[in-house]
Amino acid sequence: MRKIDFKRIGLILFFSMAIGLVVGSIDFLFGEILLQIGQVRNPNFYKIIPFLAPIGLFIIFLYQKWGKNAHKGLSLIFEVGHGSQEAIPKRLIPLVMVTTWLTHLFGGSAGREGVAVQIGATTAHHFEKYFPEERTSNLFLLIGMSAGFAGLFQTPLAASFFAIEVLIVGHYSWTAFIPAILAAYAASWTSHFLGLEKFQHLLTNQLDFSLFLLLKLLLLSAALAFIGNAFALLLKKIKDFLAKTCPNPYYRIFLVGLLLSLVMFFLPEGRYAGLGTNLIEASLKGEFISSYDWLFKLLLTVLTLAAGFQGGEVTPLFSIGASAGVVLAGIVGLPFEVTAALGYITVFASATNTLLAPIFIGIEVFGWTHSPIYVFVIAIAYFLNRKQSIYGGQRVPY
Questions:
Q1: Tens digit of pLDDT for each residue in 226-264?
Q2: Sorted alphabetically, which Pfam families does this protein's record hold (predicted)?
Q3: In a domain, 398, yes or no
Q4: What is the pLDDT of residues 369-393, one digit of tens each?
Q5: Are residues 170 and 24 in the same domain?
Q6: Of 131, 161, 194, which marks where a domain is finished?
Q7: What is the spatial distance between Cα 140 and Cα 128, in angstroms, rounded to a whole number?
Q8: Do 181 and 34 share a structural domain?
Q9: Residue range of the domain that includes 339
């Protein structure tokens, strides 16, 4: 019978708590400044958006001057997780934070989750050197990813499942789950204590179970899965296309930045800039959502990230899914609030090839009442995808 090493377990849990506290503090700083940036950008949008292309040049300069392999971003985190890389430079944290703030300030359409995961993974990676045991880097990486996600979104259960399932599709690193969830709760509590607000919208609509309802949900899930697939596929194809046709990163980001500035100048003022939380709020509150909001947000986010601007994909995915859900509500004959919530989690699930994390996002953001529906819709979307992903370093073992 194998002897339980209580000392090792205790040390891992202690490190998990410490990582969560540190990452939660950094997430608070990152998230709070990002919110303030949105308040500065929105009333001055037409004055700021012409400078998106020049600021793109500055972003490339920062990474080429000081970034080294930090320019890989999340791809570097996945490479370390798979063992093909061993080091994550500390400079990744300030670089990705500053360049994401700049992208958002000047009107880029991007998210924040990728930044939070990089913050968490990098922090944990450098904590690992103080642990008195070798070959624990993957464990610490998952702990950090969980803390990073949780500290920003304050969904610790979803963050923990995200960390253990995202590296390899269909594979769950259960040995990391307990320390990951401890770090996630510590990070979530810390960022909340410091003043970062959690987004939550409890659903009030009740749905009567029937075969007809399942058919509606099946149709809805297939449509949302298609949108998530389309986002992941377009992001990859456009990145490849831009890298091939315009290999110089300075030319690439400047030209696409000019295009983004021009397009956004003639669209409704700042509607598709930044995170997309405005579309999420409008979708769930029954405010105006046009039939093309989700499409514009999808295309502009893909162009922003493919060009080399910094930020994540997840909050825009939430925004795309919620606004698409409102449009689909009239087609499938379901309450817009429910379809917006299902769009929020399902497009994310399809674009990231994750199963458990989006279910728990639904539970932690929208409440437990509709959890059987979350499971059904996410499972269908997961079954329909399992190939395309926004994470180029994610492994698909089939």
A1: 999 999 999 999 999 999 999 999 999 999 999 999 999
A2: Voltage_CLC (PF00654)
A3: no
A4: 999 999 999 999 999 876 789 998 8
A5: yes
A6: 194
A7: 6
A8: yes
A9: 211-384
Domain edge (last residue) among 139, 162, 194: 194
| Assigned domain for 389 exists | no
Look up residue 51 and give its amino acid.
F
Residues 217 and 363 in one domain: yes
Provide the CA 279 distance to its chain's centre, in angstroms. Answer: 16
pLDDT band at residue 44 under the 50/70/90 scheme: very high
Single pTM value for the model: 0.96
Q: Is 200 among the domain residues?
A: no
Q: Are residues 248 and 168 in the same domain?
A: no
